[in-house]
Amino acid sequence: MLISGGSIVSAEAVWDHVTMADRELAFKAGDVIKVLDASNKDWWWGQIDDEEGWFPASFVRLWVNQEESTMVETVEGASPSPSEVQNGHAEASPSSSDCLCLGQTVQNRDQMRANVINEIMSTERHYIKHLKDICEGYFRQCKKRRDMFNDDQLRVIFGNIEDIYRFQMGFVRDLEKQYNTEEPHLSEIGPCFLEHQDGFWIYSEYCNNHVDACMELSRLMKDGRYQHFFEACRLVQQMIDIAIDGFLLTPVQKICKYPLQLAELLKYTVQEHSDYRYVAAALAVMRNVTQQINERKRRLENIDKIAQWQASVLDWEGDDILDRSTELVYTGEMSWIYQPYGRSQTRVFFLFDHQMVLCKKDLIRRDILYYKGRMDMDRYNLVDAVDGRDDDFNVSVKNAFKLSNKDSDEIHIFLAKKLEEKLRWLKAFHEERKMVQEDEKIGFEISEYQKRQAAMTVRRMTKQKGKFFVFSHRSVPPGYPPPMDPMNPGQYLVGDGMEQSEFEFPEPERCKSPFWQSFSRLTPFRK
């Protein structure tokens, strides 16, 4: 109605959208999109700068206050997940904020803050109901059917959803206590987020597990028994008409929504308000939580690459890399001296979290690596070495550093070719220790199921004659392909729509860049 009435309707991207066909609009999370056509429930037509195109409605969130204090209602069915949770509201535009500062009435300002507060409370109440439906309507019923679900399947599909449900009930109880029903704009909800900030880390485990849950559900749904079972669960619990995967998506969306809601609340909270500093602090906390969760998710998406790299190393011994590590931090070639031998050797080092792997290049085929050992980084201290004669090894060193064993006299010295390379390694070791500490704080680890999936991927790839490069789309738009192009009626856009596309290229006669070099480029550490 707003669009047809000539009003400007803006939305903010919640997820990155990677285009898969012509006339689609690409954007990143946080981009502001001008909505030009919302007549189709799944795909909207919008504009960013001079670019126009289709985009999935479920990837964006409308602003609460479009013009002045006009409230935009949520759109039913714009997402495969529950609409009350999916279509929250994002951060207000800078122009709205400027309007507040330049002379908007106190009454309008208070009403706009009340709109945001009411929206937060409404979505929290709906969210609690959805969590209850998942736990009581699906999870509890699945546990009764041992003939259909074993413990591993239940763990993969539902993760720690019951822990999230218990946490959210306590969080909402405290929100309700702080909610001013008579004058919502006076509510002080910032302290609630600060008091419960440590509890939000339980979402990390759920988000990391969500991809596996979708894969397992997709496999089960090929059997008609499971389709009928899940539909019966939904009807008995009197849930809204949305599939189980839509319900299981809501915790992932919810944790990403908090920074957007708090950012908007801060926009409409004057500095003199008693809640201002608490909301500002809560926004910083929740942004950090979601940033760390996204980082952990990115690392899990790379475990197939790590497993593939290990499979490419000859003469591998001992445990798999994934038994302890999830991230390649840095890699490079250096000279290495190890007591008591004292003989300098050139090795290629791969620094992961918790361990560093040593490899040797083949003398003829330099693109082939041989496994030569590893070091447990939890047992070593990093020591900088000054240029000159080293007392421990009685040799002259330059651009060197040491790793000394915490439990013995064992010492390793490493010599980089240049000072810049030494400094990169020192920084990488500090990054590795920081990563380990953060992982321990939130209990991040790879599940046995994810390890098995990575191993299966490697086995499948090694059976192929050519080399595979797998590109995974982080999310798949609903209801693909998009509707008709409004700028060119009668022409439809055609897209792939597959969640993962595999492209096979023939084996080149001579590999210009060996796999382990391509693998090293995946490191998040910047030179």
From TrEMBL:
<comment type="subunit">
    <text>Interacts with GPHN.</text>
</comment>
<dbReference type="InterPro" id="IPR055251">
    <property type="entry name" value="SOS1_NGEF_PH"/>
</dbReference>
<keyword id="KW-0963">Cytoplasm</keyword>
<dbReference type="InterPro" id="IPR000219">
    <property type="entry name" value="DH_dom"/>
</dbReference>
<dbReference type="GO" id="GO:0005737">
    <property type="term" value="C:cytoplasm"/>
</dbReference>
<keyword id="KW-0770">Synapse</keyword>
<dbReference type="InterPro" id="IPR036028">
    <property type="entry name" value="SH3-like_dom_sf"/>
</dbReference>
<protein>
    <recommendedName>
        <fullName>Rho guanine nucleotide exchange factor 9</fullName>
    </recommendedName>
</protein>
<dbReference type="InterPro" id="IPR035899">
    <property type="entry name" value="DBL_dom_sf"/>
</dbReference>
<dbReference type="Pfam" id="PF22697">
    <property type="entry name" value="SOS1_NGEF_PH"/>
</dbReference>
<keyword id="KW-0344">Guanine-nucleotide releasing factor</keyword>
<dbReference type="GO" id="GO:0005085">
    <property type="term" value="F:guanyl-nucleotide exchange factor activity"/>
</dbReference>
<dbReference type="GO" id="GO:0014069">
    <property type="term" value="C:postsynaptic density"/>
</dbReference>
<dbReference type="InterPro" id="IPR011993">
    <property type="entry name" value="PH-like_dom_sf"/>
</dbReference>
<dbReference type="Pfam" id="PF00018">
    <property type="entry name" value="SH3_1"/>
</dbReference>
<dbReference type="Pfam" id="PF00621">
    <property type="entry name" value="RhoGEF"/>
</dbReference>
<dbReference type="InterPro" id="IPR001849">
    <property type="entry name" value="PH_domain"/>
</dbReference>
<dbReference type="InterPro" id="IPR035728">
    <property type="entry name" value="ARHGEF9_SH3"/>
</dbReference>
<keyword id="KW-0728">SH3 domain</keyword>
<feature type="region of interest" description="Disordered">
    <location>
        <begin position="73"/>
        <end position="96"/>
    </location>
</feature>
<dbReference type="InterPro" id="IPR001452">
    <property type="entry name" value="SH3_domain"/>
</dbReference>
<feature type="domain" description="PH">
    <location>
        <begin position="327"/>
        <end position="434"/>
    </location>
</feature>
<feature type="domain" description="DH">
    <location>
        <begin position="112"/>
        <end position="296"/>
    </location>
</feature>
<feature type="domain" description="SH3">
    <location>
        <begin position="6"/>
        <end position="65"/>
    </location>
</feature>
<comment type="function">
    <text>Acts as a guanine nucleotide exchange factor (GEF) for CDC42. Promotes formation of GPHN clusters.</text>
</comment>
